[in-house]
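User: Second chain of the day. Same drill as before.
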Amino acid sequence: EAWKLFLEVEDKGGFLAAVNDGEVQRAVRATSEKRHTDVARRKEILLGTNQYPNINEMAASKIEATGCSCGCHNHDDDNADAALPTARAASDFEALRLATEAASNRPKVFMLTIGNLAMRLARAQFSTNFFGCAGYEIIDNLGFETVQQGVDEALAKSADVIVLCSSDDEYAELAPEAYRYLDGRAEFVVAGAPACTDDLKAIGIENFVNVRSNVLDTLRAFNERLLK
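Assistant: Same format as last time:
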């Protein structure tokens, strides 16, 4: 593949000609955009960034802002089309973490675990990793007997987000009950993609997190609503 690419570049007049035509920059930008999308959707894992984050890690005090001295003109708006992208794959998630760190409040995410033991534990772990990528405080639990008990406990702990963690079969009954009892007092999230999703959306439940979610876009939306 490398030799094929080498020959293609030679046929077009060589590397300098490809740079002057902007072809190299376009190819690198396309690769960069795809990688950022793959990281956002967890098709590519950056351990500690978009999977298994350390939610208590703080970084703002460690950052030193320096100017670009590499000659790439990446910070020159007049040469944006000719520039090579330099944003690292982790940069979008780092911006999320820094925004949370800079806010006056750190959102609390409460795991309302109920029902099937294996599924509630698995989904609580998934949701912990999911929301931990934004640096939110996570409150996990061993399980509740009723959704009312779980919601009351979440509100007592000033939770900003309540994530219902149970099995697909149980969501049809538990999710509407929890959503109605919560009555808008915190963000409500269902962990998973149950068969009853359309029915749950019909009663007003909007937030679902699962393996098909775009983690980055979802967390950006929560940041917009929660950070002060």
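The chain has two domains: 2-88, 101-226.

User: Great, on to the next one.
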